[in-house]
Here is the input.
Amino acid sequence: MSAIILDGSMVHYEALGRGRPIIFLHGWVGSWRYWINAMQASSTSFRAYALDFFGFGDSDRNKNHYTIEKQADLLDRFLNNLGIGKVALVGHDLGALVGFQYFKAHIESVDRIMAINVPLEYDLLTARMRTAPATDLAEWLTNRQPEALTSLSDASKVDPEAVSVSMSSLQGYSIFPQVRNFGVPCLFVYGANNPALASIPFQDNALPMHMHQITLENSGHFPMLDNTPQFNRLLVDFLALDSGASPTELQMKEEWKRRVR
Here is the structure.
């Protein structure tokens, strides 16, 4: 277990591998723990980090830092403290929102972003996702699959206020129009069978060339747990793109097409 102290509060993180830095940002259910397989898959070429936001996992409960903006400040201070330069960000629901918020303020520090099942508007979250305790959500979103529940075992550590405050800060939040034209490669990944979201964005809307969406047919809210080999292949393919290359190139690879069918 690794930890640093930021403004008097402990932040837990784990790191693996060597190479360019990649930061995994967890969502509203669980902690850094469900990224273990993805960290292992990327650690052959990257130095993979995963941290716990305030109010999650083994990081301190700091109620003054539970908004999306404050968690993004945490990410900024974490990167500065460890001397980490330009990064690739991989964020899942809340983590993707935090990643976008950080990106908005530090465009030059982000090489690429993978945003997984991110609710870009508050209304996209289903009522149960907004109101149920994290432990109940873990069972519901994984259909009580034992291996997935093990990866989400830290759901019991989630401060309910950390969830409610960050979700409330999503209301009136319109980060996508602000980052849409920044030109940094961004891959949106959605699970086709995700009960946490009322609908999947972008299905009928054209995205700029540096952005692309992929829907994984055999996945729900946790594609990194629902179909780990498929998710890890997509992750590695995305990370392998040349810096600045459009993620639409993923569709041009026959190898990838066969693997996602």
